[in-house]
Write a structure and sequence with these properties.
With 182 residues, the chain is of the alpha+beta class. The chain contains 6 helices and 8 strands, in the order E-E-H-H-H-E-E-E-H-E-H-E-E-H.
Amino acid sequence: MNNRKVMMKNITIRELVFADKEEFLKNMLSSQSLHHPWVEPPTTSQVFDEYWQRFQQPNQKSYLVCGELENIVGVFNVSEIVRGAFQNAFLGFYGISDYTSKGYMSAGLKLVQKKVFEELGLHRLEANIQPENTRSIQLVKNNGFRYEGFSPRYLKINGEWRGHEHWATTVEDYIAESAAFF
């Protein structure tokens, strides 16, 4: 596993390790009101263990956004990595309540894009977001993702099938914008 850190403006990203379990769960529990009804991150030991196992697969990556003190300030999951002609992955993410509106997730997303396009060698990264989740839409929009459409009843979240907007970016988009950031 390549757990090399990437840094930007006192923000780093690194892959999740099992030793992060206690801090991760504490943050997810304290941020439930921020996450609901958009995502269901692990909030119990058993669900974290399952989550951990999932992200040990070669086609799954979980990156922690860490602040100046190495504390977890956000999470980005790059999942269902497909190779071959597609070279694509899906992006999911959760912020931490104590660190919202401070630019950490935006800086973290730029670093995740750097990992995805430069290190993993992918061509495309997609984020599927419920239309009412305006903060998440603004995050991806501000980081070079473009709107590609809508699918009704796309993902089952909190027991309900919910429609999602499709947002995506490509390595070409990243190259065009990266000079301003790195």
